[in-house]
């Protein structure tokens, strides 16, 4: 029954709608209208990016004096200046962020999905309590745990290393993603793993061979969000890293702004555009997997 | 029972943390710890030095530190620069964990906030390495309280009126004589400029800030915001008079609407202010902002004394350390830290790099040495400070612990008044009440 | 919560094949033991993490909530004083009002928009991935400095909104800086970053086995019926997830308010979110003890809401297991 489920995402629903020739004209007009709306809406969504782009190619002093999107004067040197303005060329900070982000993504994908599998599919003592504890950890505001956490990491001599940023990800402390994957796994029909169990698969194999492949959209979501959130996370990177050689992109970006003196706005926006590159690229690459649900992986 | 648990938390030994630390295989996880310094007794010393600022400051600071390391080959310095907004979060957190840098940059009321809580070293213990006899007394008093010298000023600053002569010209209003002008003159001039310029240009930016309240109160009563022993000194009536005046100015159009003022309060950078955009005739600001404001506005901005200076019971203006250096009380290397501060504030070689970036040097000899090298904007600041330094109020009172919140209290009450939610009278009373409760 | 009842709706919606309504019988004895061991294996990293990195600091902050702690000197035990103080703290009460308003307005708006667009985009729109990327962009900008500045460019006195209003002859005002409107602009800011829940919805829509739709087609169901009978019921776990997390997230909103108001919660405390107030107390005025007490109260409030959510979920969330 599941053999011919192959279907591309774009056509899934459209194909099935019966259409009579008489309705074709209206439907084209409706389609145009739909796209016009989507594009208009898209412009609202894009406005911040366009504004940033425009500001990044304006001379700094024009940024606040001239609000228009189209610059009256161009200054592309913001990119060169910004890249070289700090103690290291900007790629140093991109690399630092990249290391933390890559490790965080791997850590979250692995450990959060493991925990989620246990919560969603296995029975064990204390499950309800642990689940509640897991949720509770999403709820406490970071600004209050940050001080005890700092003290803990400081005792471990982890200040000014990447450990405080990476190790927690390998210990499934981002409960958000555990909860996300629990919800995904629970929405999968259970007969899938029952079938595997009857075939003699252990839990490790069911987790790895059955559940993980079916969870591609959830895993992609986790990877994308982890990437973006860690890449943009300012507070913990600020608190735990003190050596400017180890600064990450968001911390480095802040040094362009000085509320007490002169700020390099042009270079700031130029480097903000650069900093957007990796996350947008990752989102573009990752979103392909968002659409690989049950429909295309197939249930074999 | 309180103290048994209480004392544990400082220096990072929370009972909780300790339990978990003990259960963890520490050795396996220890990181590459480059920063916490070498052991006492060895020759090689690494100092941690934290400060806030932009990339330009980072560059010149590094040049000065290179010179320092050349002079003291056994000391190396790790800098920990950050932007201003994040700086104090990290500092407070690292102090709580007993992991603060050796040399700490502070500003405003922070030296007292930290010093009175035992975080900073009494600098008289390192007077040998860090002599202060060349440093301006008034500036030095910024770091002196509870009978202890806790910090050394990096430079001097004063709070005064920045004016844009181009806006005055466009409105056909002559610049006032700042040795004799009054608050009424200020109101009239602001009004006249607003009337004679386009709608988006204002005679003055809303002048309310904690610093101006301090100044205004000193002019009117001889006492600023706080008393010597850490109480509130400003009277509710003084604050009421102030807000009565500024509210009228806002309503008459001499200063911007409540909404624009609130909007400007949220964005501190000089480039975003009305003065920085060439849209205001007058704006209170710190003298060290002059360069940034000139750059942003493209106009030849000038500094004037505050209105009412020559008419009050006492001068309201004062000299303030733009920033100051302090040493962490738990530092393993207080003497080397003192040498570093000494080099930064007392050495002409360091000043040749830093110049007036952290305020006009408070050390007279150093200032003299660098004066010929100052650029035009900085020279204008130095001249202004030199001109007013004999007139300013010498009785500077540093805000007590908790007073760093006053800035926000004033800002909030100002919104309430300008948006007509409370009367100037009530605002005055609430100011006294809320500041009192903040510094208790 | 973990065991939510199965619902007949799922089957009516066309679940083919098994017709099974109960989970397979619980494994007993030897099997149960093995399953338990497996569970602890899968949870091992989480146990270590929760024990070392989470519970310790949380208990630490619980302890601090009974102390007077300036961050700079040792905490002193003061019993319930912090909690007593909360009763009389007017700024706190104001911040609760601000936060609750925000939660109840922005979460439904954001989720509705996210779900609508996810559904819209999932239905074979040409250029789907392009639209999806564009709509996700605001969420990428995160809490960068640029957002704060930009927000004033849009909602400031001379901002984009007022320029557009001026075109039709309406004299606008400073939205972001007026005490009556500042909170609304933050709601807009939040709704505008609907990209995250949208992506989660999209992923959820993808996971609905197409066999359900095919079965419905065989039965001759129309698009509307399929939406209400298949899509929505099968998406309920994801809707539930987004709802729970967005509510928690909205209660914890910090960065947006922080950057837009420059940390003050102004004008006139109109955007003083609860967490912003915690931050001001803890880091601004060195009252970490009081801030911890505030945080614990917030934890209790959120936990209460979440519990109600889970309780209500039994009535409307359908799981496939």
Keywords:
heterotrimer, B: 440 residues, alpha/beta, D-Maltodextrin-Binding Protein, domain 2, 2 domains, 5-stranded mixed β-sheet, 19 helices, globular, C: 321 residues, mainly alpha, MetI-like fold, two-stranded antiparallel ribbon, 2 strands, disordered N terminus
Summarize this structure briefly:
The complex is a heterotrimer of chains A (300), B (440) and C (321). Chain B has 440 residues and is an alpha/beta fold. Chain B has helices spanning 2-9, 15-23, 26-29, 55-71, 84-96, 110-115, 137-140, 165-171, 183-196, 210-221, 236-252, 258-265, 290-297, 334-346, 348-354, 364-370, 376-388, 406-418, 424-439, and strands spanning 45-52, 75-82, 103-106, 144-145, 148-149, 152-153, 156-163, 202-204, 280-286, 302-304, 319-321, 324-327.
What would your notes on this structure say?
The complex is a heterotrimer of chains A (300), B (440) and C (321). Chain A is an all-alpha fold and 300 residues long. Chain A is 67% helix and 0% strand. Chain A folds into 2 domains: 18-75; 82-297, Orthogonal Bundle (MetI-like fold), CATH 1.10.3720.10. Chain A has 14 helices and no strands. Chain A is flat. With 440 residues, chain B is α/β, with parallel strands linked by helices. Chain B has 2 domains: 45-155 and 321-382, D-Maltodextrin-Binding Protein, domain 2 (3-Layer(aba) Sandwich); 158-318 and 397-439, Periplasmic binding protein-like II (D-Maltodextrin-Binding Protein, domain 2, 3-Layer(aba) Sandwich), CATH 3.40.190. In chain B, strands 2-1-3-12-6 form a 5-stranded mixed β-sheet. Chain B starts with a helix and ends with a helix. Chain C has 2 domains: 33-77, no CATH class; 83-314, Orthogonal Bundle (MetI-like fold). Chain C has helices spanning 8-12, 29-64, 81-88, 90-122, 128-140, 145-155, 160-167, 182-192, 195-206, 210-218, 223-251, 255-261, 274-284, 288-316, and strands at 67-68, 76-77. The two termini of chain C are 14 Å apart. At the A-C interface, helix 1, helix 3, helix 4, helix 5 and helix 6 of A face helix 2, helix 5, helix 6, helix 9 and helix 10 of C.
């Amino acid at each position: 029954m599941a053999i011919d489920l192959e279907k591309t995402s774009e056509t899934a629903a459209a194909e099935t709608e019966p259409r009579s020739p008489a309705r074709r004209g209206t439907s084209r007009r409706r389609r145009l209208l739909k796209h016009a709306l989507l594009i208009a809406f898209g412009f609202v969504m894009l406005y911040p990016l366009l504004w940033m782009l425009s500001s990044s190619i304006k001379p700094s002093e024009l940024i606040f004096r001239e609000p228009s999107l189209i610059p009256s004067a161009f200054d592309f040197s913001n990119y060169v200046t910004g890249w070289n303005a700090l103690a290291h060329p900007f790629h140093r900070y991109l690399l630092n962020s990249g290391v933390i982000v890559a490790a965080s993504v791997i850590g979250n994908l692995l450990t959060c999905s493991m925990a989620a599998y246990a919560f969603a599919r296995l029975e064990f003592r204390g499950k309800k309590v642990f689940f509640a504890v897991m949720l509770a950890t999403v709820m406490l505001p970071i600004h209050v745990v940050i001080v005890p956490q700092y003290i803990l990491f400081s005792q471990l001599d982890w200040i000014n290393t990447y450990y405080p940023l990476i190790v927690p990800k390998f210990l499934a402390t981002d409960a958000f993603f555990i909860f996300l994957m629990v919800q995904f796994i629970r929405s999968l029909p259970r007969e899938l793993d029952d079938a595997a169990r009857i075939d003699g698969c252990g839990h490790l194999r069911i987790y790895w061979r059955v559940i993980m492949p079916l969870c591609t959209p959830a895993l992609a979501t986790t990877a994308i969000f982890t990437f973006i959130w860690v890449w943009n996370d300012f507070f913990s990177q600020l608190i735990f890293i003190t050596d400017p050689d180890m600064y990450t992109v968001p911390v480095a970006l802040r040094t362009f702004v000085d509320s007490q003196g002169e700020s390099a706005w042009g270079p700031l926006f130029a480097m903000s555009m650069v900093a957007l590159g990796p996350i947008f690229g990752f989102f573009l690459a990752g979103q392909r997997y968002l659409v690989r649900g049950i429909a295309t992986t197939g249930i074999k | 029972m309180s103290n048994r648990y209480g004392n544990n938390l400082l220096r990072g030994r929370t009972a909780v943390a300790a339990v978990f630390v003990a259960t963890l295989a520490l050795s396996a996880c220890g990181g590459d710890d480059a920063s916490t310094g070498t052991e006492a007794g060895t020759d090689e010393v690494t100092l941690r030095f934290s400060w806030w600022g932009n990339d330009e400051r980072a560059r010149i600071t590094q040049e000065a530190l290179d010179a320092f390391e050349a002079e003291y080959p056994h000391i190396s310095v790790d800098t920990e620069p950050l932007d201003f907004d994040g700086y104090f979060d990290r500092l407070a957190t690292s102090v709580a964990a007993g992991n603060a840098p050796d040399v700490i940059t502070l500003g405003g009321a922070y030296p007292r906030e930290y010093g009175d809580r035992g975080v900073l070293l009494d600098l008289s213990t390192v007077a040998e390495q860090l002599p202060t006899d060349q440093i301006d007394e008034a500036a030095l008093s910024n770091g002196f309280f509870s009978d202890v010298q806790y910090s050394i000023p990096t430079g001097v600053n004063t709070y005064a009126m920045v004016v844009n002569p181009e806006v005055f010209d466009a409105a056909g209003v002559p610049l006032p004589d700042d040795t004799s002008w009054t608050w009424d003159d200020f109101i009239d001039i602001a009004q006249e400029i607003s009337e004679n310029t386009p709608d988006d240009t204002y005679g003055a930016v809303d002048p309310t800030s904690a610093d101006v309240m301090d100044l205004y109160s000193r002019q009117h009563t001889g006492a600023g915001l706080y008393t010597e022993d850490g109480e509130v000194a400003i009277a509710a009536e003084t604050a009421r008079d102030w807000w009565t005046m500024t509210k009228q100015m806002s309503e008459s159009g001499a200063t911007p609407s409540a909404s624009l003022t609130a909007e400007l309060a949220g964005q501190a950078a000089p480039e975003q202010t009305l003065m920085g955009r060439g849209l205001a005739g007058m704006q209170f600001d710190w003298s060290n902002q002059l360069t940034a404001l000139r750059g942003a506005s493209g106009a030849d901005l000038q500094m004037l004394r505050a209105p009412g200076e020559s008419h009050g019971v006492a001068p309201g203006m004062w000299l303030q350390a733009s920033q100051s250096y302090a040493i962490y009380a738990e530092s393993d290397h207080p003497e080397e830290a003192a040498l570093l501060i000494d080099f930064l504030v007392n050495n002409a070689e360091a000043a040749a790099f830093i110049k007036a970036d952290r305020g006009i040097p408070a050390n007279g000899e150093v200032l003299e040495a660098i004066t010929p090298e100052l650029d035009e904007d900085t020279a204008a600041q130095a001249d202004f400070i030199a001109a007013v330094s004999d007139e300013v109020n010498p009785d500077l009172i540093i805000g007590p612990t908790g007073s760093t919140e006053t800035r926000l209290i004033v800002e909030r009450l100002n919104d309430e008044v300008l948006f007509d939610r409370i009367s100037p009278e009530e605002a005055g009373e609430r100011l006294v009440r809320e500041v009192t409760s903040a510094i208790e | 919560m973990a065991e939510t009842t199965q619902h007949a709706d799922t089957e009516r919606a066309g679940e083919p094949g098994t017709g099974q309504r109960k989970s397979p019988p619980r494994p007993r004895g030897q099997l149960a033991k093995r399953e338990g061991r497996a569970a602890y294996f899968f949870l091992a990293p989480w146990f270590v993490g929760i024990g070392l990195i989470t519970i310790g600091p949380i208990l630490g902050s619980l302890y601090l909530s009974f102390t007077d702690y300036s961050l700079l000197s040792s905490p002193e035990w003061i019993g319930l004083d912090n909690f007593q103080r909360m009763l009389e703290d007017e700024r706190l009460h104001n911040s609760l009002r601000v936060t609750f308003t925000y939660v109840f307005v922005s979460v439904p708006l954001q989720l509705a928009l996210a779900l609508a667009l996810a559904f819209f985009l999932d239905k074979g729109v040409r250029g789907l991935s392009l639209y999806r990327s564009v709509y996700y962009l605001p969420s990428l900008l995160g809490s960068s400095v640029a957002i704060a500045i930009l927000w004033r460019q849009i909602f400031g006195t001379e901002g984009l909104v007022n320029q557009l209003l001026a075109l039709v002859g309406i004299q606008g005002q400073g939205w972001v800086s007026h005490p009556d409107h500042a909170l609304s602009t933050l709601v807009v800011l939040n709704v505008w970053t609907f990209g995250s829940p949208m992506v989660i919805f999209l992923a959820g829509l993808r996971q609905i086995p197409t066999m359900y739709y095919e079965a419905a087609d065989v039965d001759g169901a129309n698009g509307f019926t399929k939406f209400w009978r298949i899509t929505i019921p099968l998406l309920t776990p994801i809707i539930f997830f987004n709802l729970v997390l967005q509510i928690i997230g909205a209660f914890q909103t910090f960065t947006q308010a922080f950057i837009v108001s420059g940390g003050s919660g102004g004008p006139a405390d109109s955007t003083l979110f609860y967490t912003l107030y915690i931050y001001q107390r803890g880091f601004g005025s060195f009252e970490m003890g009081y801030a911890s007490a505030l945080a614990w109260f917030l934890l209790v409030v959120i936990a209460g809401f979440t519990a109600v959510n889970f309780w209500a979920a039994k009535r409307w969330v359908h799981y496939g297991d």
